[in-house]
């Protein structure tokens, strides 16, 4: 299973606009706990961070 965090800087606009693909950063992890900790830290810094997983073996 692959685990990664996608994160991007949130705009100050009132209405949600999805980010451009070039604005989204990704970081890969071996463990769920590490990915969750990183996502939490990025959220605290003002980023929108989401942990993603695929089910491949």
List the defining traits of the structure above.
57 residues, alpha+beta, three-stranded antiparallel beta sheet, 1 helix
Give structural notes.
The radius of gyration is 12 Å and the shape is globular. By secondary structure, it is of the alpha+beta class. The longest helix has 13 residues, at about 30-45. Strands 2-1-3 form a three-stranded antiparallel beta sheet, with helices on one face. The model has no long low-confidence stretch (mean pLDDT about 90). About 25% of the residues lie in helices and about 35% in strands. The chain contains one helix and three strands, in the order E-E-H-E.
Number of strands: 3
| Largest sheet data | 3 strands, antiparallel
User: Could you state the order of secondary-structure elements as H and E?
Assistant: EEHE
* Gross morphology: globular
Decide which structural class fits the backbone: alpha+beta
- The helicity comes to 10-25%
- Proportion of residues in β-strands: 25-35%
Q: Helix count, per DSSP? A: 1
Strand order of the largest sheet: 2-1-3
The whole-number mean of residue pLDDT values reads 91
Low-confidence stretches: none
Rg over C-alpha atoms, rounded to the nearest angstrom: 12 Å
Termini separation comes to: 5 Å
Topology:
Layout lengths: L2 E7 L15 E5 L2 H13 L2 E7 L4
What's this, in brief?
By secondary structure, this protein is of the alpha+beta class.
């Amino acid at each position: 299973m692959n685990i990664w965090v996608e994160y991007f800087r949130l705009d100050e606009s009132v209405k949600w606009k999805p980010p451009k693909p070039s604005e989204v950063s990704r970081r890969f992890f071996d463990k769920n706990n590490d990915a969750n900790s990183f996502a939490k830290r990025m959220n605290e810094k003002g980023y929108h961070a989401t942990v993603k997983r695929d089910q491949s073996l």
